[in-house]
Design brief:
The longest helix has 14 residues. This protein is 30% helix and 31% strand. Strands 1-4-5-7-8-10 form a 6-stranded mixed beta sheet, sandwiched between helices. It starts with 24 loop residues before the first helix and ends with a helix. The chain is built from 5 helices and 10 strands. β7 and β8 form a beta hairpin. It has one domain: Trna Endonuclease, Chain: A, domain 1. α2 crosses α3. With 192 residues, the chain is an alpha+beta fold.
């Protein structure tokens, strides 16, 4: 509470609320991609998930409600597109874990897909939002694959220390919100 000198009741100072930020991580990426598209920087979109609709109710003439649906096939990754002539493909995940990113958050077919993108000359990676640290990292798929291979016989997560060592921190901005292409520029240079 902030009070005035004349003892009049003041106002409650609002604390910065990041509680919905994780829920909005996808929205932040979508806003970033809209910014990239509007400024003719890149064309990157969220991939639609193919579903098979089984049951629909029609409560009114103008509206339909899907009551039952199934995924037709497992989805690959969340986003893909093109930037500076390079194919970009990535998955975006968040974790509420306090010490590590559970590898169970990313499916083996997604890891396989990211590996194939790399093998064919594309640029693939994982964006990780670590809620407890309020930080976003870009982890190259080659590093993700190493951690995933390690998990077959051992550890089932990537520690935050490992993410900080191998990943690239993406500071949140205003426009664009999550400027991951700044890191992609580095990845393009690295590929030569």
């Amino acid at each position: 509470m902030v009070n005035y000198p004349n003892k009049k009741q003041g106002f409650q100072k609002q604390k910065q609320n990041y509680s919905n930020r994780g829920m909005n991580f996808e929205n932040m990426i979508n806003e970033t991609n809209e910014y990239y598209l509007a400024h003719d920087i890149a064309v990157i979109h969220k991939k639609p998930i193919p579903i098979q609709i089984v049951k629909v109710d029609y409560p009114s003439r103008s509206g339909a409600v899907i009551k039952e649906a199934y995924y037709k096939i497992p989805s690959t990754t969340d986003y893909n597109g093109i930037y500076k002539g390079h194919y970009i493909d990535f998955e975006a995940k968040e974790t509420q874990n306090k010490t590590s990113f559970p590898l169970s958050n990313i499916h083996p077919h997604q890891v396989k897909h990211l590996k194939k993108i790399d093998e064919h000359g594309g640029i693939s990676f994982l964006l990780i939002f670590i809620k407890v640290l309020d930080e976003i990292y870009l982890l190259e798929s080659s590093d993700l694959i190493s951690y995933h291979n390690r998990s077959v016989d051992g550890r089932k997560s990537i520690t935050f220390k490992e993410i900080k060592e191998k990943g690239q921190l993406i500071p949140e901005g205003f426009a664009p919100r999550v400027n991951y292409l700044k890191i992609v520029d580095y990845l393009i240079e690295k590929k030569g």
